[in-house]
Write a structure and sequence with these properties.
Layout: H1 2-25
């Protein structure tokens, strides 16, 4: 169970990190 939580946690981080940099680079 803990391994699954860690997997999904790292997966969400991998998804969020590029999104974060894209948002930061976008001039709104």
């Amino acid at each position: 169970m803990a391994a699954v939580a860690k997997e999904s946690s790292s997966a969400s981080t991998i998804i969020k990190e590029p999104l974060h940099s894209v948002v930061l680079e976008r001039p709104f």
